[in-house]
TrEMBL record:
PROSITE patterns: ABC_TRANSPORTER_2
PANTHER family to which the protein is assigned, alphabetical: ABC TRANSPORTER ATP-BINDING PROTEIN (PTHR45772:SF1), CONSERVED COMPONENT OF ABC TRANSPORTER FOR NATURAL AMINO ACIDS-RELATED (PTHR45772)
Highest taxon of the lineage: Bacteria
Domain ABC transporter, chain residue ranges per copy: 2-245
Keyword Nucleotide-binding: yes
Gene3D superfamilies: P-loop containing nucleotide triphosphate hydrolases (3.40.50.300)
Name of the protein: ABC transporter ATP-binding protein
Length: 246
């Protein structure tokens, strides 16, 4: 569950977010839409911990994470993809996913390696199986040994998604996940998201995708929530039409 309460963020004189509040119950797929400059990316930065709000709070489950930095939020099960893909170009697709998985139970140096060797090897095997599983899920199995830098943008985006899914996140934030995807890849993405039992917050400009994929929508305009509701409710909301049509 994600709970954002009265969150405000200002950049100098620009109020990117003004007292934004909403909740995404566990397992729900929630879309954030709004015109350019509405505050969507800023909201993602606040939820993922990259930006601290000037006021307000963010809770994940029953934990207040407002002051918890991004890296610790990631450890607590928050994963994010970015508007501009951020894959490791010099690593293979499989290694990109492997690198994103938390190494639990490491540490302790050589003595620990020797004593705990069988358990560590078993865990390593589990991680590699998981890599294959998510590559399959994302339609990347054939590309597991390709260097990420050589892939077209749509595939790179799917590598980023695979990385985000590898550790079975509790909360997944997707920033414009369809951009650069072709029709087949977009359809696959829809299926992947629908099959997750993760809380998902996504920003997306492709309205068809948003309407088909999300359980609920939040509409931002000039840093304010101007409407929330099911996709059908939002489609018929006059204030939303006004915001988009100017
Ligand atoms: N680092 C920053 N410094 C100054 N102003 C910023 C900064 N980041 C965002 N803003 C401003 O805050 C407002 C919200 O920006 P934000 O990028 O969150 O909107 P957005 O809805 O994600 O837009 P887009 O759809 O174009 O990505 C805009 O007016 C933007 O110019």
């Amino acid at each position: 569950m994600i709970a954002v309460e009265n969150v405000s963020v200002s950049f100098g004189g620009v109020k990117a977010l003004g007292e934004v509040s909403f909740e995404v119950p566990a397992g729900q797929i929630c879309g954030v839409i709004g015109p350019n400059g509405a505050g969507k990316t800023t909201l993602f930065d606040v939820v993922s911990g990259l930006r601290r709000p000037s006021s307000g709070s963010v809770r994940l489950g029953d934990r207040d994470v407002t002051d918890v930095p991004a890296v610790r939020r990631a450890r607590a099960g928050v994963r994010r993809t970015f508007q501009r893909t951020q894959v490791f170009g010099r690593l293979t697709v499989a290694d990109n996913v492997l690198a994103a998985m938390e190494w639990r139970g490491g540490g302790g140096g050589l003595p620990a390696d020797l004593v705990a060797w069988p358990a560590r090897r078993a865990r390593e095997g589990e991680r590699r199986r998981r890599v294959d599983e998510v590559l399959d899920l994302c339609g990347l199995a054939d590309l597991r040994d390709a260097y990420a830098a050589t892939l077209p943008i749509g595939r790179r985006r799917l590598v980023e998604l695979a990385r985000a899914l590898a550790d079975r996140p509790e909360v997944l934030l997707l920033d414009e996940p369809t951009s650069g995807l072709d029709g087949d890849q977009t359809a696959r993405l829809k299926e992947i998201i629908a099959a997750l039992d993760t809380t998902v917050l996504l920003v997306e400009h492709d309205m068809g995708f948003v309407m088909d994929t999300c359980d609920r929508l939040i509409v931002l305009d000039l840093g304010k929530v101007i409407a929330t509701g099911t996709p059908a409710e939002i489609r018929d909301d006059p204030s939303v039409r006004a915001a988009y049509l100017g």
